[in-house]
User: What shape does this take?
Amino acid sequence: MDLKVILMSATIDTKLFLNFFDGFRVQLLQIPGRTFPVNNYYLEDVLEATGHVIEENSYFTLNGNYYTENESSLWVTTKGGGRERAIMDSSSRIFEMSGMYSDYSLSTRRYVALNIDNHLS
Amino acid sequence: MEIVDEKKINFDLIEDLLIMLLNKRQMNTSIVAPNGDGGMDTRMDDGSVLIFLPGIGEIRALYQRLSTSKILGNKDQFNIISMHSSISSKEQKRAFVPQKMGCKIILATNICEASLTIPDCVVVIDTGLERSIKQNNRTSTPTLVTDWCSKASAKQRAGRVSFKYMFYTLFMHHSHNLKLIGWSRAFGSML
Assistant: This one.
């Protein structure tokens, strides 16, 4: 009987191939390799570390109509059917939305914090 | 408005980041994680930096910029190499030669993402963008679009760091989850 050995890199989906060769009595042999732990730093970390300044309304900022007003209001329906007008101003929103960026400096939060809101809406 | 548009490649920021990494080396201190979780001692003269860009245009622009830079333009210390399918293989081979002095800065597209490994790469900077051929449904013609790479690509790019890790992305942490798709829809569209 011929022995067939298929050599593959670690990124292969072994289950898929085992299922495909099902009935041929396939054995899987795994040789573990070293992987290096990778530290990920995202944009907010880069901005924080470099202290890079992005100017207002420059090419690198979002030039949409997102939060161009300092204040936004919404109607809140309260229990019993009454309506209330709530006013939020954008400076307080920065802090509300940036709970996950609480360790970052104010300038970094200004660059990234409101962006969360843009994605969700 | 001062909210960052992650899709615009900020060459200033890349240069600032490179200089920051360099300054840390000159002060002979280890690069500490900006968020305080303690980085390992990675020095830039230990190896090379790999920067992922979407295409040849961006590679040329960044090459121009870095080579005219006051600090990074120093030819003795920094070897700036472009990696793109349109660049001759002789030129590309320079990326694999270990550097005796200084460090290599390799500007690449997603050709460096898989199958080839830069042996001494210690820092990867990823713009998170790639250019691929996608079908335009309205005109039913294939078009070249710059878009977010997939999560799988981002992971692969992070894995290009061969030892002692450092991976910098130029998009936000939450964007990784919200904008990037799991797997690339375009297949075999390496540029």
Summary: Chain A touches chain B at residues 35-52, 54-57, 59-64, 66-68, 100, 103-104, 110-112, 114-116, 118-119 (CB under 8 Å). Residues 92-98, 116-121 of chain A have pLDDT under 50 and may be disordered. The helical segments of chain A are 14-20, 43-50, 90-97, 106-120.
